Amino acid sequence: MSTSKNGVSAKEIQRQTGVTYKTAWRMQRQIRLLMKPGNDPLKGTVEIDDTYVGGMRPGKRGRGASGKTPILGMVERKGAVKASVVDDLKKRTVKPIILDGIEKDSEVFTDEFLSYRDIKKYDFDHDVVKHHIKEYVRGNVHTNTIEGFWSQLKRSIHGTYHSVSPQHLQLYVDEFAWRYNHRKSPTSLFELLLRKVVEMPV
């Protein structure tokens, strides 16, 4: 779990350790709890975007697709990512997450989604990339970094886990965010996890 970019399934843990599937799943859950993100706000240039995770279904794709779980993501350019599983992507839902997760006066880039429209009112320098006219990059304005994180997350969920229930999805998102946020760490991720175990209260 500390070295595989795509994650590892509980079935694989079961095969490699000889424990039951239930035990392997619980072991992974406990490790994911160690990967919970910190509270430090993002700053500088920050991209915000959202995605939906869930099984393949006929009908509408993307925002508003039925039976899928929305995730709101924010990433600091060359820095950390924060991603939150949410009930919906309405303004009243995303606003407090953005205000808590990003320092004031940061430069924020989004697409033209309505829930992001008033971000400038939150004391951010806000600019928009207009996907509806096939605009994906305009100078320094883009959301390619967070979209790259979504791509890795979705490939891994579909390829390694096949599906994740909504009630456990945040733990999986935290796992991928933790590996992303420590990608440049001079200390091995395995050692970082061991240190967190040592620091846990008895």
What does this structure look like?
The protein contains six helices and five strands; from the N terminus they run ααβββαββααα. It has about 200 residues and is an alpha/beta fold. The chain has a single domain (about 1-200), classed as 2-Layer Sandwich (Nucleotidyltransferase, domain 5), CATH 3.30.420. The protein has a five-stranded mixed β-sheet with strand order 3-2-1-4-5, sandwiched between helices. Strand 2 (about 70-75) and strand 3 (about 80-85) form a beta hairpin. Helix 1 crosses helix 2.
Which features does this protein show?
39% helix; 6 helices; 202 residues; 5 strands; alpha/beta; Nucleotidyltransferase, domain 5
The end-to-end distance, rounded to whole angstroms, is 24 Å
Runs with pLDDT <50, length 5+?
A: none
CATH architecture call: 2-Layer Sandwich
Q: How helical, in percent, are the residues?
A: 25-40%
CATH class category: Alpha Beta
Number of helices: 6
- Approximately what portion of the residues adopt beta-strand conformation? 5-15%
- Class from helix and strand fractions: alpha/beta
CATH fold-type name: Nucleotidyltransferase, domain 5
Topology diagram in text:
Layout: H1 10-17, H2 21-34, E1 45-53, E2 69-76, E3 81-85, H3 91-101, E4 107-110, E5 125-128, H4 144-161, H5 166-181, H6 189-199
Parallel strand pairs: 1-4, 4-5
Antiparallel strand pairs: 1-2, 2-3
